[in-house]
Amino acid sequence: MKRLRAWFLAPTWTVMLSLFAAPLAIILAYSFLTRGTWGGISRPWSIESYQRLADPIYLGILWRSFWIAGAATVLCLLLGFPLALFISRAGNRKNLYLSLVILPFWTSFLVRTYAWMFLLRDTGLINTVLQKLGLIHNPLPLLYNDGAVILGLVYGYLPFMVLPLYATLERLDRNLLEAAADLGAKPWVALTRVVIPLSAPGIRAGAILVFIPCLGAYLTPDLLGGGKTVMIGNLIQNQFTTARDWPFGSAVSLTLMAIVLVLLLVFVRRQEGGLV
Amino acid sequence: MKKKWLAAPLAIYAVLAYLFLHLPLLILAGFSFNASRFTVWQGFSLAWYRAAFQNGQLKESAWNSLIIAVFATIAATIIGTLCAYGFWKRSQPVLAGSLYMSLVTPEIVSGISLLAFYQWIFRFLHIQLGMHTVILAHVSFSIAYVVIVVMARLRTVDAQLEEAALDLGANEWEAFRYVTLPAILPGVVAAALLAFTVSFDDYVITSMVAGVDSETLPMVIYAIARRGVNPVVNAISALIVVGFGSLILISERLRAT
Amino acid sequence: MNRRYFLMGAAGLAACSRDRRPRLNIFNWSDYIAPDTVPKFEAEFGVRVRYGIYESNEEMLARVMGGNSGWDVVFPTDYIVKPMLANELLAPVHREELPNLAQLEPRFQHPDWDPELNWSVPYMVIAAGIAYNRKLNPPPRAWADMWDERLRGRMTMLDDPFDVIGACLKKLGLSVNSSDPGELRRAQAEAIRQKRLLRAYLNAEVRDQLVSGDVLAAHMWNTTAQQAMDSSPEIGFVYPEEGYAVYPDCAVILRESKRPELAHKFLHFLLRPDIAAANALAARTTTTNAGARKILPPAFRDNPTLYPGPDVIARGEWAKTTEPAAQRLRDRLWTEIKSA
């Protein structure tokens, strides 16, 4: 029994060790080196890269990433909860409605981000329509700002929020709601006092599933933020291309990983989350 | 049957939410048929589709994406299915943990760490970045997805079936091959479709480890999209949406059987 | 397991080229060559060319820095040549194989960055200035105008550290090649001040937005501006009063290249007057090739954007390689500007 299982797991071990652990180890090593004169890495070993992170500018980027990711998460929650509630009560059409939520998600992320570029530009659809209707005279600057980035993130990760919420809401005991109604509670009260607290596990799972990718987002702030909205992901990419400062880029990467790990350890409970 | 509370407002909200989710893509696809470059409708035209199909770079990159996705999917599905089976037999917290980590690692970090890894290896092996480096990278992040889907399917399989087979004289490999594998096959195929879409769509990691000959479709789309709105991108996007959409619908159907 | 090996082998085969002809991989700026130059080269020499494009020196460097990118010929700006040399990224240029070097203009025969042309071959010259939409009245005339409140949200700067810091230095009346930390920090302060008005940092990507009117004024290279002006009479270009940076771009052969002889043939091909003229005409740039300049059509040769008068030329300042210490400072300042 054990031999076969060992063989079955061996390829995964190999891949994980060589293509996941080893690269991260290299990055770890790089983060303790110094930038070469014209870029890249060189001796001496130092913790200078990590010390640089304490600079207010970079703490500001960290803070901004948290803010944007947080805003996207909250919006996803607000937008996704009613939708998940609707689907969970949809009877035998549940799978259809669920598929309709998943469908746009599994088409290209790049395409979906581009769709918002198309809509939000000064000469894009939204501005053109608003101008034709006479509501505005000059185009609104909808693109290349934090708002556009948050919108793009919400659009991209909404399904990540809806699915766990749906999973929790679907298992909700209808009797509890009936009991609440019997006791005279109005629908709104039943919602806030019964449904929402009971769906806490789903909310937690969804929040984590949205917040973490948003924190490390790179493509969305790049395309929708116009190179001005610098989140951690952009900073990292910048260090490895334009600035050619690999040690600093590595330090920022590992810091991001550490933050993600801490969040997971704090918020994901063993029995709710996890892979297996 | 109790009257459903909040039924009406929720239904209205759901319609709006679905519009929000689907309308941007529908608009994008709609304007791919616009004769004009700009957001003023000037008549129906297939010109952008013609341009897309005639663009050599697009065709080549689409072909590259396809090859990469096929090979990465086959490798990831095989490795991932075997891994899920291994987990099913006995849990492996370390390996499972590392797979989970690979899922939550920000793509940019995966990309640059793989790039650094390849740069380091190439000091000894003198190979260049190319299709193989991209395929390996895709395998590394796809395995976790495959494991999740196949595990979900495995949970519906009765462990006693294998035990019965073993009792009847089969060895472990035969038990897996003839009893469990057929039972999870729809899940495996669904996982493969998932891995395929994830690989085909990847931009961040691919752009960091791709070489001269291995430009993928997302890389080309990004390069064009960066320079501004271009209806050819609308056309490609529409094709991608329809293509992936169909794959996912099939995948969902298979998962449900 | 047999099937897996087969598939792996097939992957390896698929990764190899499907074409028997010798291959040359050329990495160049976008829109920087005539459409028929590469096909002509392929036909004449019986080779296949893979032609990739980039939008900035940094993008190119990031790819070739590792020494295993796969490219044979790239086109760095002059001030990048020395750092590439220091990083052992370049293969020597054998002058004997390039008799057409005589076609270059005298001032490019012994340039500052490579006096004997042992490592690079000058290609085209660019300058950075301000492109604007004629809706903007009065039109901009100096770098200082890019800090004007009326441009809020409708103005872009190049996504290039040397250009942006250079523009700020010029605004302060300093040299674009300054290595003085104090001066550089003052320039950085200017850039950060400007960010509030800035729409985005964009290179050639902004061309469409300028034409459509989304953007009113853009920090732009004269080449890109000329291309924009070709498609719309609404666009104008100005060389700022305080002065501007001039960048010769060169072709270099990468050390990792496995086909240096073929690369030399390509460089020689580029130096032919007819080819150089076609490239300059199509890319809308200033050529370094005297022979080409003679055969350019007069209208193009006298184009004020690409071949300005002597008073404008006098304001131009050549970009030079920065010393390592100052370069580190500049790179760090750029990160901070981007992050501010």
Description:
The complex is a heterotrimer of chains A (276), B (257) and C (340). Chain A contains 13 helices and two strands; from the N terminus they run αββαααααααααααα. Chain A has one domain: Orthogonal Bundle (MetI-like fold). Chain A is mainly alpha-helical and 276 residues long. Chain B is mainly α and 257 residues long. Chain B has a domain at 62-215: MetI-like fold (Orthogonal Bundle). In chain B, α3 (56-89) packs across α6 and α3 (56-89) crosses α10 (217-226). The relative contact order of chain B is 0.14. Chain C folds into two domains: 20-123 and 248-307, D-Maltodextrin-Binding Protein, domain 2 (3-Layer(aba) Sandwich); 126-246 and 314-339, Periplasmic binding protein-like II (D-Maltodextrin-Binding Protein, domain 2), CATH 3.40.190.10. The interface between A and B is large, with 86 and 93 residues.
Short description:
With 257 residues, chain B is mostly helical. Chain B has 11 helices and no strands.
Residue-averaged pLDDT of chain B, rounded? Answer: 85
Question: What is the number of helices of chain A?
Answer: 13
Q: Please estimate the helix content of chain A.
A: over 70%
* Interface with most residues: A-B, 86 and 93 residues
The CATH topology of the domain at 62-215 in chain B is: MetI-like fold
Q: What does the main sheet of chain B amount to?
A: none
Query: How many individual β-strands of chain B?
Result: 0
CATH topology of chain A: MetI-like fold
Mean pLDDT of chain A: 83
Order of helices and strands of chain B: HHHHHHHHHHH
Distance between the termini of chain A: 20 Å
- N-to-C SSE string of chain A, H for helix and E for strand: HEEHHHHHHHHHHHH
Radius of gyration of chain B: 23 Å
N→C terminal distance of chain B: 30 Å
Number of strands of chain A: 2
Strand content of chain B: under 5%
CATH superfamily of the domain at 62-215 in chain B: MetI-like
List keywords for this structure.
heterotrimer, A: 276 residues, mainly alpha, MetI-like fold, two-stranded antiparallel ribbon, 1% strand, globular, disordered C terminus, C: 340 residues, alpha/beta, D-Maltodextrin-Binding Protein, domain 2, 2 domains, 12-stranded mixed beta sheet, 40% helix
